[in-house]
Design a protein that fits this description.
By secondary structure, the chain is α/β, with parallel strands linked by helices. The protein has 5 helices and 5 strands; from the N terminus they run E-H-E-H-H-E-H-E-H-E.
Length: about 130
Amino acid sequence: MAKTLTLVLMDPPYEKETTTTGFRIIESALRQGHNVKVFAYEGAVNLTMKDQQPHPNPVKGTTVEQEQHPTTKDWVAALFRMGSGSPKLEWINCGLCVDERGAGNWIEGPRRGGPKELAEWVQATEATLVIPTK
């Protein structure tokens, strides 16, 4: 029987390596057949922003195509493809955090929620991992 892991992410895109670590934990759990619930809090609500665009690297003189710069929205979309059936990925963007950042234009998959849903997830899952901002 699949177990369920809840993760709380707080960092905005590209600020720290903790986001990449969180993505790796999510991917690993899904690959092992576990369900994953992600609660994006604070700046992490920007991880799923639909309007993110890759960019060139003028310092190296590379084009967008050469640079192949990943966006967090693409990483999250790939995780949703992995977790579209069984195992399952669920993702909530904190509505309070979304509103104060104007971060409401998301890729397909995340839904809006709040601390109440996070508390319910924590009580209903086998383990919770909080990846704090500091």
